[in-house]
Structures are given as structure tokens and as C-alpha cells.
Amino acid sequence: MDQGQAFAEVLHQSVTFDDGLALDCGRRLKNLTVAYRTYGALNAQKSNAILICHALTGDQYVAETQPLTGKPGWWANMVGEGLPIDTRKYYVICANVLGGCMGSTGPRSPHDDRPEEVWGTDFPAVTIQDMVRAQARLVSHLGIEKLFAVIGGSMGGMQALAWAALYPDQVFACVPVAAAAYHSAQNIAFHEIGRQAIAADPFFYGGRYWAENVIPARGLAVARMTAHITYVSEAALTRKFGRRLQTATDLTLLGDRFEVESYLEHQGSSFVRRFDANSYLAITRAMDLFDLAADFGGNLAGAFAGTKTRFLLVSFSSDWLFPTAQSRAIARALNHVAANVSFLEVISDKGHDAFLLDEPDFHKTLAGFLAGCAEHAGLRE
Amino acid sequence: MDQGQAFAEVLHQSVTFDDGLALDCGRRLKNLTVAYRTYGALNAQKSNAILICHALTGDQYVAETQPLTGKPGWWANMVGEGLPIDTRKYYVICANVLGGCMGSTGPRSPHDDRPEEVWGTDFPAVTIQDMVRAQARLVSHLGIEKLFAVIGGSMGGMQALAWAALYPDQVFACVPVAAAAYHSAQNIAFHEIGRQAIAADPFFYGGRYWAENVIPARGLAVARMTAHITYVSEAALTRKFGRRLQTATDLTLLGDRFEVESYLEHQGSSFVRRFDANSYLAITRAMDLFDLAADFGGNLAGAFAGTKTRFLLVSFSSDWLFPTAQSRAIARALNHVAANVSFLEVISDKGHDAFLLDEPDFHKTLAGFLAGCAEHAGLRE
Hints:
The structure is a homodimer of 381-residue chains. Chain A has 381 residues and is an alpha/beta fold. The first copy, chain A, folds into two domains: 14-184 and 288-377, Alpha/Beta hydrolase fold, catalytic domain (Rossmann fold), CATH 3.40.50.1820; 187-285, Rna Polymerase Sigma Factor, Chain: A. Chain A is 32% helix and 15% strand. Chain A has helices at 128-141, 155-166, 185-200, 217-231, 234-241, 259-272, 277-289, 324-336, 360-377, and strands spanning 14-17, 21-22, 28-29, 32-39, 49-53, 79-80, 85-86, 91-95, 147-153, 171-177, 310-316, 340-346. In chain A, the strands form three sheets. An eight-stranded mixed beta sheet of chain A has the order 1-4-8-5-9-10-11-12, sandwiched between helices. A two-stranded antiparallel ribbon of chain A has the order 2-3. In chain A, helix 3 runs antiparallel to helix 4 (217-231), helix 3 packs antiparallel against helix 7 and helix 4 (217-231) packs across helix 6 (259-272). The interface between A and B is large, with 60 and 60 residues.
């Protein structure tokens, strides 16, 4: 990838709210645009809407071709006709998060005070809760008073939890997958590696790379590589690559390559074509700031007091980034307030990424949970 | 740290072998210098020598002030009078590894063919076994035919294992601590992040930064930060920093800092003052190439067939970089050849770094093991 190549642009379906959005940091965005996609049809009662929240580097193209990469949607195995989140039955909404780079307001949007420039690193710090508030505006705009379900994995799971905490009466069912109620010190540290790598790239220009029409591609690639390692288990890495040298040529200091290295390099470089560095900074920071119990004196149960939402928590046994213990802590807090909660630890050796992969146990459980909730909600087929 | 500041230089005690060293990669170093330090006195029988092998970013200053940092030796709590490796009883040797930057032949040494330049990234790929062969030259030079013990943690443990495999008759006791017989795919991946960060630094100049009198400080710092996270447990990170914001000021995209981040930044920046980037590339690569069983058809036991060496293996329960399972695999291979082997898993929540810290269980076990070996070896007090 040529470092001088500019970020690819496409047009996204979106809605703009001229009254902006008040942020947790105390500042206010004068304009708020939320880019989104929908699948399936909203029923007459407007009671079959499922909001899917995407993860750090995901986007709204959950079940269709991603326009920049040409690859299938990131949850194409989960959302669609006849799939666990069945678009013949449910109206599926997915929005690009606030701070993102796929059409929603973020560091690449025009600066509120200097519209001839983009925000860049001047973009205010946003939180997971801010992202959820932006989504709530979209949901209202679509005429939906109550979501049948909010579902998300990883950072999407954080959003699902925040939805249930902020809008308890507007969420019938909530499915946080491979998630946590706060970001751990280790997780923050890994994100910081990525941010430092971006800031260290000479093409970063203190965040004003857009003005130079370049991308801090190498820094962003290192950030992505770091994150990628945390998404997979040691077993998955070993199975895929083991320790085979990709080429058996004479070893030199930088010339030889283990397979895992070239794979990571490929992952890193394809990423920079579709993701904005300042968005990466904004969104990782939002994750790092997430601590749902903080507003309740450190007592997570307080976030869910009196909730009527039905919860399904899912973790994966080999996920060391959002380990099962984190989901268990959420389950305990929900039990504490007598919430309706199911908890499934899927036995998988695929690590955190398992939530995106074909995990039959996970898919069957989710489909079953949704069917049960649909019955309780009186959702007509 | 000023990026333009050159690498600090000091004079080190060393020995040079004019006949060089044949390397695993097939090339030959025309000159071999081994920088080293010794502590205590060699007895008349020359039977009380303990070789200590240092880890990735360690050096020969195991039990005295490090001349570049002014900090105590990296194992000052382990090596000295009255300490587990008691310098009143043992003659302790520690050499800077081949490929290092503290006086031994490495990327900062004069190029064999163009002595007016340094090797830089042209330095041949070295292996853990090459490091051990260089140490063996030093041990012979000191007039020692058989080491009483070889002891090392992390990469030092890899060297200890390689010593026992390459020179079984010259090692009475062998203590690999927090070690492994091969580097895992995950470990390789973390190293690759560091190498990519270094290569991405504009001050790297393709490895010829020395010619520009600069240091790829930010890339090296990111590499060190990445490695540092893998050295500590989540529990240790949380205990030390938790999620407290270091400053409670208004959040901005790059302005706020979690404590763990500023800690990591500090760790990274103090590191670049003492460590050479090309050495970091060379040594991480040597670790990544390590697979002791590879020369024996994948059968680790083959590396130790007929060994008379006494082994003590030590792992730490919260070490996720070199987990207990890796030490257990070595123990199994040693059992397979009926070797004399003790194995201790120290219960600690301090992660991989525990081998450097005050872990009473570990220290007592090592002292006891050495005392027992001394008796068996007929070592006179």
C-alpha cells in the first residue's frame, strides 16, 4: 500500500440531526450524522427491530458487501434469511458508531467551527454511552419506540450493555457477546500500543495527515496487528501457522519471515485501506473509558436496577481479551437485581474472534433465545 | 528523549577471539568479541563456576550497577553474598549475548568486510545455539572445563536448555526459569509487532540510523511497550494502575491518559537510551527461531538423550508468555530420557516478570537445589 494514498471515500446512507448531540465529556456536537443500514422489514407494530452494534473496526455493513473492501458483511453468517438473526422475521438495523469513519460523525467529519477542515484529532472524546445515544436518535428517527433486541460482540457488547442501562424501557432483549462491563488494564495497554504506533508514524502529522493527503499506514498497520493478536487464541495462531518458515531461504536479520508474521502484515495492510487513524484513536479511547459501574459507585448491579430486559450473555472459553470471568461478573450483577439472564460459555479454541465465526453452539443458542423472547414479547410472525 | 540523540557508549570488559565463530545460518563471523562480568572467585579445582544467561533486554551486569542506566544489576536480589546464588561460594559469569549491544559482537560491531561501518541490519541472523557457542568460547578462555551450573530466565532459560543439549558433559546442573523449548506462534507475533514498529520509525533509515547519528526511539519504545505488557499479568497491571485516570482534566482525543499508559510510555522511553534497535531485531529473531526439538525430528527428548545433567525447571502460574505448560513439556521430555529433574510451579500473580522479582518460593528452591547439587558434585566450600 502506497503511504501517500488517501483514505477511500464512498457515499453512505445516513440521517443528520441538526440539533447535534451532548457528549459525556461536556462538549456538544453541533451536527450529528448517523450512517446506517437496515435489513428485512419493520412490521406494522414496529416491534420486530433488532439493533446490532458493531465492534471496534466493524461498520454498518453487517450483512452485505462492504463497499470499500468488496468483502462480505462482517456478520454475514449470522444475519440474513434463515440465519440465527433471521431477516424474514426481524428488522435489523446497524449504524456506524459515533467517532467512526464510515459515514457517521467522527474525526473525518467537518469541524463544527471550521467546516472547511475536518475534525481530525480535535474531535471530542466520545464514550460508549455517547455512541448509544447517537443510535437512540436513529432508532427514534425510524419510528421505533422499543427495540426487540440489542445485540453486539466485543465493543458491540459494551454498547448493548449501555443500551440496557441507559434505555431500560426501550430494550426487550439484550445480548452482549464476548463483552465486558469495563475495559481492563491489559486491554487499555494493548490499545495504547496501537495509539503510540499511530502517533509515531511520520505520516501522522500530529493527526493532520488528512491535510497532507496521506495516511499513517504503517502505524495503523502496527496498531491493527497488535489488536489482531489479542483477538485470536494461541491455539488458533499455532493451528494456522505453527512455526513453519514461509520461505526456507538463507536467514538474514530482516529477510526471513515466519508465516504468522506475513499473515499479520497482510491483515495490517488491508486494514489501512478502509479505516481512518483518527477514528481508531477515538474509538479505542471510548472503549478504554468504558466502566459501566463507575456511574453507580462501582456497583455494576446499580446500572441494571429494576430492569425488565431479558439478557443472554455469551463468552468464549479461549477468549483472553474479554474472558469468561468478565461475562460472569455481568451475570452476577444481573442476578443481584433479579434480572432474567441466561449465560453461555461456548467452548471454543478460536479466541475472541470466535464471536464472528461459525460457532454452532453460539448460533443455536442465540436463535433459541430470540425465539423465546419473541414468544414472550408477543411478536407476530 | 531527543530522537536525534545517539546511542550511549561505554567500555565493557571483553575477550576477542580472532578465529571468529561459525553460525547456524551457514555464515562465519571473522571476529568474535564476548563482553562479560564475573563475581566471586574461581576455586582451585575450577569447579564452582555458574554461568548466568540473560534475557532479551538484559546484559552482563547481573549483580552490579548498570553503567548506562545507573540502576542496580538486573538480578541483584539473586546474585551476591548471602543470596541464593552466593558469590562467596560460586564464581558467577555473565556474558552479553551474541547479537547484543553491550560489548559483545552484534549489529553495532564493525562490519567484517567494511570495518569502517558497523554491521547494522547486515548482521547475520544468529540463533540461541550460536549465543551458547559464543559463551562456550568464553568459558574455555576462563579455563573452565565444566560449569557447575547454567541458570537463566526467559531467553536465558532457552540458552540454559541449549547448553544442556549442546554441551551435556560441561553442565553439571541446569536451571531454565520461565522458559520454553520453542517460541510459540503468539510469542513470535508479539515480537513481530515490535519489529514492525521499529521498521516503521522514520529514524530507522532501513537499519542505517547509526550512520545518521539518530535512534528510532519511538519505534523501539513501542516495541518495548508491547513486550512489557506480555511480561506482566493482568492482575499485576490492574493492581499497579487499575483504571484510574492519571489526570481528571477534560477528555480530549490524545490529551487524557490512563496511568497504565504513562507507565508504559516511561518504560519505553527509558529503554531506548540503553538498547540498540538492530540488536532488538537480531535477538528477538533468535528467540523466534528457537525450537530445540527441531534438530531431533520434533522429539524434544532427543535433545537430552543420555544426559547426566541435573535439572531444575521453574515456571510461574500467572506467566502467560512462557506458561507452565511449556515447562511441563520440557519436564516430560527429560523424564523420557530418565534425567534427574525437579519441577516447580511458583504460585504468583506477577506474570513472566516474576523471575526477576522477590519470589521467596523460587529463591529458596533454587538455593536448595544448588546446595544439593554442590553436595553431589563434591564441591568444597
